[in-house]
Structure formats: structure tokens, C-alpha cells
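ok so heres the complex, two chains, lmk if somethin looks off
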Amino acid sequence: MKAKVHVTLKSGVLDPQGKAVQHALAALGFGGVDNVRQGKFIELDLDETDAGKAQQTVEAMCRQLLANTVIENYDIEIVA
Amino acid sequence: MKAAVIVFPGSNCDRDMQVALRNSLGAEPLMVWHGDTELPQVDLIAVPGGFSYGDYLRCGAMASHSPIMREVVRRTEQGVLVLGVCNGFQILTEAGLLPGVLMRNAGLNFVCRDVHLRVERTDTPFTGHYSQGQVIRVPVAHHDGNYFADDATLDELEGEGRIAFRYCTPAGEITAAANPNGSQRNIAGIYNRRRTVLGMMPHPERLADPLLGGIDGKPMFDALVEALAA
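and the predicted structre for the whole thing:
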């Protein structure tokens, strides 16, 4: 099965890259963008066939490596 | 005293660190490859600057899981001194040896220039050859040096006297203009609780020889040698 992981900055953590993207969008004429937050998308192919176990394993991966929980949140989606 | 410099794929300040240590120590530091699992008995471990693992995922994230880092963490628990500079600082935070994280510079630019630092305390093995509040000039060269921690952690660092250096003006004033990267409270370097681990973004090893245009970094290495010889 596949795991899709979104890693995003916690609210309250400044995101200078998101700000720069917002400014660039405004410069291109895309008005009305109030806020931009930039994150990461990580896709994993897993041998695991049990969705619950896959979820647990990927959570451990997020805590240990994929996300820095000081500043980042993660969101896991397991797909068959 | 014996010192080791950890070398990761992508380290590029390992040799500068080696030279600075050699000059103050009068002996050759060990160069230890990141893939090694054993570390000889040493009194000081230096984690150098560079771009370990190409800064993949997050700066220092991959390196913090290198085989040798398990041993570095173990030695830290035993009280062995650890100095992490630039990418080394990022690696130490990712390894959980120091709190907080180094984020992308607030101005988004890679900053490569000399900065001024105020020495916050001198009763540590790293800073014994500086004077209290002394302003030193040391280069920075980084894209991700913006120190961030939550307010509770920052207050704890302040309360426990664990801020090693702050970015300042040449006169020693802590101002926003003197902050090259947006670091919280102008923090340039911090200690662990026992003050045996120092992580800092500026490079003392790059100004430790008159030929390099300054020697403001040299007292750190001389102080370490003296502290560890005792």
C-alpha cells in the first residue's frame, strides 16, 4: 500500500518562503491571496498490507525523520 | 587532550576545523567518518559545517541519524565536550542534543559575511579566553541559520544562562539590524543544560589565524585546550 505524508509548518511558525511565494503571486497579478504556507509532500510505497500497522509505522517515521515536530505537523493518508 | 572531527558526506569546514584544532592543540585531531560506529576516546568532538547529505529533507536531518551520531550522543551523556558549528549546529538540534531548530533565513538569502557576536558568559570550557560581554568578529555562511524555538524554550534558555552568543552591533548592542538571519532574540549559539555542548551558526574556525584576516575565533580553541588539559 501507499502512504501519502504532508509535512506542514505549525501555525505560528513564520514561513518566509510562503511569504515570498505570496509576493510573487501578487506580482503576477494574482490578487486576493491572503496567506501562503509551503510544505512537503512525501509518498511512500510500503510492503505492509495492514492499514493500521502501516499507519503506525509511518507515524514513527514522521516522528523520527520525516518531520521535525518542533516546527512541523504531519498528516498521513494510507491508500490501498 | 584529544579531539575528533566528524566528517559527513558534504562537510566542507572539516579541514578548517582540523587546522584550527591542530594549531591550538599542537597535535593532530582525529578525522572520523560518519559511517564509523566506533569513536576512540576523545575529550572534544567537533561537528563541522557544510552541507551534509546535500541538506536533503531538512538541514542536518540525515546526518543526525548517521551511525557515528549514536556514539556522539552516548559520549555527550558522559560529559564529553561537543562543538557544533553551522551545519554542525543544525545536526545537533536534529539529534536532540540542543533544543530548537535552524530555519530558512528570514531574508531568504544565503548570508556570507562577518558578523559581530556578544559573548554572553565566560565560565564555560568554550569561552574562558573571552571576557564577559566581549564583542568578537566571526564569519557566517549559511542559508538556514534562523534560530527558532517556542517562547517557553527561549525563556528557559535565557533563565538557565544557556545562550552562548548573540548577534550584535560592533558596539555590542543587540539590535534587529545586527541580526543576519532573523534568529529569535538574536541567538547565534546555545549550550545544553550542562554547558558541555555548544552549537553556533558563526564559524570561529574560519578566523583563527592571522593569515585569514582575524583571530577572534582562536580563543575558543585555546580555551578548550586549556580547560581539557586541567
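quick notes: The mean pLDDT of chain B is 97. thats all i got rn
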